[in-house]
Amino acid sequence: MLELQKIVKNYNAGTVNEMCLFDGFDLSIEKGEFVSVVGSNGSGKTSMLNIICGSIPVDGGRILLEGKDITRHTEYARAKYIGRVFQNPAAGTCPSLTIYENMSLADNKSGLFGLSRGVNKRRYEAYRELLAGIGLGLEDKMETKVGVLSGGQRQAMALIMSTLTPIDFLILDEHTAALDPKTADTIMRLTDRIVREKGVTTVMVTHNLRYAVEYGSRLVMMHEGRAILDKSGEEKKGTTVDEILQLFTEISIECGN
Amino acid sequence: MSVSLIVGIFEQGFIFALMALGVYITYRILDFPDLSVDGTFPLGAAITAALITRGMDPWLTLLVATLAGAAAGVVTGLIHVKIGVKDLLSGIITMTGLYSVNLMIAGSPNLPIFNYDNIFTSGLGGVLEGIVPGFGTVLLALLLAVACKYLMDWYLGTKSGLLLRAVGDNKLFVTYLGRDEGFVKIVGLAIANALAALSGAVLCQQQRVFDISSGTGTIVMGLAMVIIGTNLFRRSRLRPTAMVLIGAILYRAVIAIVLFLGINPNFMKLVMALLLLLILAYTHRKKGGARRA
Predict the structure, then answer these.
(1) A-chain residues within 8 Å CB-CB of B176?
(2) Is A91–B173 a contact, with Cβ atoms under 8 angstroms apart?
(3) How much is the average pLDDT of B230-240?
(4) Is the pLDDT at A107 greater than 90, yes or no?
(5) What is the ipTM of this complex?
């Protein structure tokens, strides 16, 4: 279980632009949950992910993982049990390395990066099989540099790579936002399949309300640093896109948008 | 051009190629413009000269010089990673500090070692010279350059080497592999500056004199060698390390031709600077001006 307790986060502290985003924000995520998070720009969705991953420090509160305080742990230390896929497809892979090299690196996550051979021959066929499962023909391009692949292909690889080793958390940071609608659907279906197969606890931030309603076991809507809607289980299943859109419009009017 | 002139090109080419291999790591792999090499190259020279005059085995002095270069690279890395100083400035700080350190080690701006044995006159170098008189130095330099090239090829294929290549490509990716990207950068800087110091030490033994000014412009030369090699053979199937080696030879050939044409040696650094500018302008134009060289 992951718990955010009384999180405080200010931006531009000490300046005229000081902005308090979180002031005592609480959220707990149970093991095995697939949480979809929606909300307007500036509502704190991405900041929340960054706080979970340790990309930005908090000004108050605690982050507990299985009861252990990880608030002061660095981003790379937390990455040992967190996989993350970013909005930018270029962020999840290395462009000047080949597909084979990228897969081998990802496969060695948290392992010793010593002086043994970089690419993993014994796992070559396993990588090809995994890539074949995406259906984009990447399994026949093992020696191709990832930099020449399309955004969708790279995002599919990023997804596969981030879950190649056992992780406790999968963080999806608007990971379909930069893709065309068809590719986005493909990536979303792949995401759902991987999350189900691995049973990994997942937090997905998205602007696509349909994805948020269709996928995941829990739906959270954020607004001004608070969770104004939090549905799971049967309650979540009964939620429709229209309902969410309605609520979205209401809060937007409140803000004067 | 005489045979000795051509042999000289290859001697210097192979020796400076060691440094260029290091510059390849920082400039091309890490995308880190590391000016420390202007200090670590003469650091290697100062150490080897100082130790040889104290009677140490010339090969052993190369080892000490290499380790000292690595340590200096770590210093640049720590300044950048731990204190957060910009990459270019971190190198300048190390380079500037090393100037005094190098003077302290050598004891004077100019330390001749003519009267001592070095790797080219004794041991393997002496044997080579005995077999093919006049070519012993170039053969030993070739052996050193090729050995370093293959060592680097091997390293870049290991897990640690792959991680090094990844960090220049995508820092965030390395972070999400659960590794400290700052540490990987420091490792890269250590290897690069170890090679620069080794190169400086070997050159010092070949020239049989330590000269404090020998470091000035090292980075300009290294960059030119790397860019010539990797751009000229971009379409070939050669490994980048081989391209750097050839780039180093070609660069020294251009310099030798300029000298051969009778240009005043005082203008040498100006020629080197203009040569790099020319190469950069050319590669920049070919890429449509899109990417900063």
Answers:
(1) 76, 79, 82-84, 92, 109, 162
(2) yes
(3) 90
(4) yes
(5) 0.90
Q: How far apart are CA B86 and CA B80, in angstroms?
A: 6
Strand residue runs (E) in B21-76: none
Contact predicate A26/A6, CB 8 Å: yes
Q: Which two tokens stand for residue B250?
A: 């070609």
For B206, the token pair is 């070949």
pTM confidence score: 0.91
CA-based nearest residue to B252, from B268, B236, B235, B239: B268
pLDDT at position B134, please? 87
Alpha-helical (H) ranges within A37-180 are 45-53, 75-78, 99-107, 124-132, 151-162
Give helix B181-207 / helix B37-53 axis angle, nearest 10°. Answer: 50
How far is residue A189 from each of residues A211, A220, B167, measured CA to CA in Å? 10, 20, 31
DSSP E strand boundaries for B194-252: 209-211
Tokens of B155: 């390293």
3-class secondary structure for A140-155?
HCCCCEHHHCCHHHHH
What average pLDDT does chain A have? 91
Separation between Cα atoms, residue B244 and residue B152, nearest integer Å: 12
Q: What is the pLDDT of residue A254?
A: 65
Instruction: List the structure tokens of A39.
Output: 């909300």
From its phi and psi, is residue A97 left (phi > 0), alpha (psi between -120 and 50) or beta?
A: beta
Burial label, A15 (beta-carbon count in 10 A; 0-12, 13-18, 19+): exposed
Using an 8 Å CB-CB cutoff, list residues of chain A that contact chain B. 74-77, 79-80, 82-84, 86, 90-97, 101, 104-106, 108-119, 162
The residue count for chain A: 257
